[in-house]
């Protein structure tokens, strides 16, 4: 291949980063400008000009993506999530009270044992649990009322309480703690980056309710499975007889939730947000609670936090960054009005 042909091929590969509509209109002109500015004997694009072309192409694609109709699917998903997630977290905690785990105990040293309850009404007497549920009730009410910034402040305050009282919440199953933390993280990003919970309330349908109720049931069943493997239960009842039942119920309910979402053709971005929220919970449930590092919130390590919260942090960060870029594009596209400061 001759030098001009090789250089032209290199420029064409760079120009392929631009949107197709732009290439069809101005691709030939840009190629001619690049070829005219090349040095004698140059065989491939230079580093600086390659970076400049790529920067311009990526910026143009981002502008097209943020202004395209498809972006409304993403922002609408965030709006729905900003309402659905707080309601889901509240239901998940209430199910822990309504459906506790009862461990069948055995006779110890000649004394008859009694059934050990994990969760249930005893949680109501735990000071932090009533505070946590109270905060979730406040958040749920605020998002239903469409008060975006007050809801965001309540999420931040509740997350702060979760962090401040982390050493006093051992009665709350660790999977629910992880699920709540991830839910708060993605919900905060959704409140910032979406059109707001009022828009989400308009888009919320019975299908979302069915999916989230099934998911809440799956969460409670898998939490009972986690509870049944705790050290206290294994001490009182070395062979808990109901572990497989909880596993089957959680799988069936999770599959049913996914099936309903697929049948109803639910927004794929909304499903991605749910996956980001549930990922830390699934990781915690899969982690043996009796291991030395099972308590991932009371004594966290950087590795634990990275494994547990990497995906929700990534999704939340992308949502906020995309919103900032969208706002910047809209501000630049506004016509300048002379005489207006």
Describe the structure.
It is a single chain. The chain is an all-alpha fold. It folds into 2 domains: 3-50, no CATH class; 70-323, no CATH class. Helices cover 72% and strands 2% of the residues. It contains 13 helices and 2 strands, in the order H-H-H-H-E-E-H-H-H-H-H-H-H-H-H. It has a two-stranded antiparallel sheet with strand order 1-2. Helix 1 packs antiparallel against helix 2 (20-36). It is elongated and about 80 Å long. The model is unreliable at 106-114, 291-295 and 335-341 (pLDDT under 50).
Task: Write a compact overview of the structure shown.
This protein has 13 helices and 2 strands. The protein has about 350 residues and is mainly α.
Mean pLDDT: 78
Helix % is over 70%
Strand and helix order: HHHHEEHHHHHHHHH
Count of DSSP E strands? 2
| Class of secondary structure makeup | mainly alpha
**Portion in beta strands:** under 5%
Give unreliable regions as ranges.
Answer: 106-114, 291-295, 335-341
- N/C terminus separation: 58 Å
The domain count comes to: 2
Task: Tell me the major beta sheet.
Answer: 2 strands, antiparallel
* Rounded radius of gyration (Å): 27 Å
User: Largest sheet, order of strands side by side?
Assistant: 1-2
